[in-house]
Amino acid sequence: MKRIILTGGGSAGHVTPNIALLPRLEELNYDVHYIGSYEGIEKDLIESFGIPYHGISSGKLRRYFSLKNFTDPFRVLRGMGEAKKLLEVLKPDIVFSKGGFVTVPVVHAAKRLKIPVIIHESDMTPGLANKLALSAATKVCCNFPETLELLPKEKAVLTGSPIRQELLSGDPVKARSFLGFRSKNPVILVAGGSLGSVAINNTIRAVLPKLLENYQVVHLCGKDKLDPNLKDLAGYAQFEYLKEELKDVFALTDIVISRAGANAICELLSLRKPNLLIPLPSKASRGDQLLNARSFEKQGFSMVLEEETLTDELLLETVNHLYENRKQYTDNMKSSDQQNSIDTIVDLIEEITN
After folding, report:
1. For the domain 3-161+339-353, what is the CATH code?
2. Which of 147, 167, 245, 328 is most buried, most CB within 10 Å of its CB?
């Protein structure tokens, strides 16, 4: 039995692609272990799947001033030692890293022990943790054609991002009943990321009366961002987030309004949902969502509006255009090479470990 170490953490986006690989790895009889931080979000997410979880010390490598910058390098060094000891005991055939700062000690410990490493980069430009891990990688998987030019040619592979396969098996009838939607109007799903987006939420609520003339709206607002005044509005359903019901809601959805996080937009690509992306602005991030969105726009998968130029009238106009031309966007997504990411990545794992 071959053994694989999965690693990634710090945010759900660094964990869910690893989770998406689990069924296929288990089919192939891999013994799967996970290395993450002691108390990160990855611990709760992975332990619910019954995967052996191993914690190590982790520090963040910041680009800005913080007092923790003086202590975290020592935590990274301690994590390196802990990762090396774990790998010596577990003796994996390969390590698959999804990124996040906890992965840096793991991949460099693997390199020292001559264990092959595959890295996956979700965004168009590699994040700092993956940049630091590149020298230890055997192969580097990525989501965007443009990213290939930023990676070592002999290591780079365009794979797309693994998505949870259950999202592809939704039931629109169940969704309609769950949401209480009665009309046959098309359905818009609005998703502002796990924490929600104040800018998107406010704009959607401002144009709701107009939207509900022709559409029904499912609004994922984010934690603590529900509006009690809209609780009983016909054709409108709001939630902080959805778990089990999300696949059914996707199946009912005609078009999506979303932030442009890499995992979120790769899910839309796999589901072939025409979408309007409103990326997180560069002043609130390193600009990766803007780059992700423009790549999807260039490939004909998405329409894009930037938050700084967002107005009620522009949003309504763009939504109508997207819906009227939805087939064009769906057809473009059907022809994408970034669809079978799980098979592509697992084939790469098999190739390296055989």
Report:
1. 3.40.50.2000
2. 147
Contact residues for 160 (Cβ-Cβ < 8 A; gap 6+): 143, 266, 269, 270, 336, 337, 338, 339, 340, 341, 344
Q: Which residues contact 55 (CB under 8 A, 6 or more apart)?
A: 35, 36, 37, 38, 39, 43
**pLDDT single digits (tens) 7-25:** 998 877 789 899 999 999 9
Residue 146 has pLDDT above 50, yes or no: yes
Mean predicted confidence (pLDDT) in 157-177? 93
Residue range(s) in the chain whose domain bears CATH number 3.40.50.2000: 3-161+339-353, 166-334
Maximal CA-CA distance, the chain: 63
Per-residue confidence band for 263, with pLDDT thresholds at 50, 70 and 90: confident
Rounded to two decimals, what is the model's pTM? 0.82
Give 218-258 as a DSSP string.
Answer: EEE--TT---GGGTT-TTEEEES--STTHHHHHHH-SEEEE
Label residue 243 exposed, middle or buried (CB < 10 Å: 0-12, 13-18, 19+). exposed
**Burial annotation 137-166 (CB, 10 A radius, 16+ → b, else e):** bbbbbbbbebbeeebeeeebebbbbbbbee
Q: Pick out the residues of the known binding site.
A: 11-13, 164, 194, 289
- Residue numbers in the known binding site for UDP-N-acetyl-alpha-D-glucosamine are 11-13, 164, 194, 289
pLDDT-above-90 percentage for the chain: 73
In words, the CATH class of domain 166-334 is: alpha beta
